[in-house]
Design brief:
The protein has one domain (36-184). Helix content is 34%, strand content 8%. The protein has four helices and four strands, in the order H-E-H-E-E-E-H-H. Strand 1 (36-37), helix 2 (43-55) and strand 2 form a beta-alpha-beta unit.
Length: 185
């Protein structure tokens, strides 16, 4: 009978301990302190991202962002964001791979930063969908930074200046339901 009583008391003790821990644990509030640390070379891209959002009717304040260099990002990845969430109580970190320069033009460099800010600030995930003409549907694609880039080396006098596509890709970045542009059919 003594064994039965000790077994019966043990669960009540555990329940009491559990409830005590929950109440104590829940009463502690962690104050999130956002950090903003963007190198001068990337600040113009962040400013342009905010401006492009405003031009499309979105008010974005970014005070919770770190952009750094991280040599542990493995090729073929150019950069990464630690969070694809719009939550403001999570430190947003865009890490650039210093061992792999993935851009050849200023437009591609912008596209890389806008893509990562799309993850960190807008909560966007990758979208590898295609437009009816076969072009990528979104700047949030995983593989191509040149969606609205100008030519580096024109081949056979073919058209390679895609800078006219920039307005669509930025519209789609801030509004996923953006209609297909005329050039995308």
């Amino acid at each position: 009978m003594e064994f039965y009583r000790s077994v019966r008391v043990l669960p009540a003790s555990l329940l009491s301990l559990f409830l005590s821990a929950m109440i104590t644990g829940c009463s502690k509030e962690v104050d999130f302190v956002p950090v903003y640390d963007v190198p001068a070379e990337y600040q113009p891209f962040v400013d342009a991202f905010i401006r492009e959002a405003m031009d499309r009717g979105h008010s974005i304040e970014i005070n919770n962002l770190i952009i750094d260099y991280n040599g542990t990002i493995e090729a073929p990845h150019c950069a990464s964001c630690n969070s694809a969430s719009i939550e403001k109580n999570v430190q947003k970190i865009v890490s650039i791979n210093p061992n792999l320069k993935c851009w050849f033009t200023e437009e591609e460099h912008e596209a890389l930063i806008f893509h990562e800010l799309g993850h960190c600030i807008l909560g966007r995930i990758h979208d590898n969908g295609l437009l009816p003409n076969g072009d990528l549907k979104s700047l949030m694609n995983e593989n191509d930074l040149s969606v609205y880039s100008s030519c580096i080396y024109p081949i056979d006098n073919g058209p390679c200046d895609d800078s006219f596509k920039r307005p669509y890709y930025l519209d789609e970045l801030f509004e996923e339901g953006t209609p297909v542009p005329d050039w995308g059919n």
